[in-house]
């Protein structure tokens, strides 16, 4: 027996809007965006993980070292916390975003932790996986609720849990690992703590203090989760941040020095020589050239 799809509106809207759990701003949950004209969007430093569902139109995303990657209708991809990303969306395109820290359900955390071995043998290329049944009707229902004003914490929490439930039940582990690769680790909570706090401190000792863990345990856990020492990882993140800053058109060396907390222009010059093999001006030219060719 065939059923006819019926449009329906939210009943008792005033009762819903007056609920103490109604959210006027989405900090953790879902947001549906319809672009009525060509538009750019993004953040220099994301404070959440963003799961992007491309519902209509070809949208271009630049994320950290990945430049101008095109995603099509039916793709989904993750932008991890503490990223620099920019999107370019054409008129009439549609996008759904899920903002989250880590999965709220312990089963979902354990799932992502269990995929760390798969990730160890993968090369991360910022590739999407496809939206398919049963996610398709799930997203239709979710968007229908949002568009009709059902925007309470209950909806967003339940829908996030259902999303992970459907992924866990109907997607292969390799696909889930591909999608969530940047946040997967042997300890999801510890990795999320590091990603959320490493930009707030100037050295590893302050990061250890924030963690409330013993030094030996912190270093052992860090090595286990990230596969390198804390010092090596922090240096890598600092160098990547420098490259991100210098890629921006019209960048000023003085501004970069101030933003990243270098003591002087001379010290920054020596740092670039040591870690990049060139002067800051030469590094800017290299970054700008790479940006134009990507």
TrEMBL record:
<protein>
    <submittedName>
        <fullName>AraC family transcriptional regulator</fullName>
    </submittedName>
</protein>
<dbReference type="Pfam" id="PF12833">
    <property type="entry name" value="HTH_18"/>
</dbReference>
<dbReference type="InterPro" id="IPR009057">
    <property type="entry name" value="Homeodomain-like_sf"/>
</dbReference>
<dbReference type="InterPro" id="IPR018060">
    <property type="entry name" value="HTH_AraC"/>
</dbReference>
<feature type="domain" description="HTH araC/xylS-type">
    <location>
        <begin position="188"/>
        <end position="286"/>
    </location>
</feature>
<keyword id="KW-0238">DNA-binding</keyword>
<dbReference type="InterPro" id="IPR050959">
    <property type="entry name" value="MarA-like"/>
</dbReference>
<keyword id="KW-0804">Transcription</keyword>
<keyword id="KW-0805">Transcription regulation</keyword>
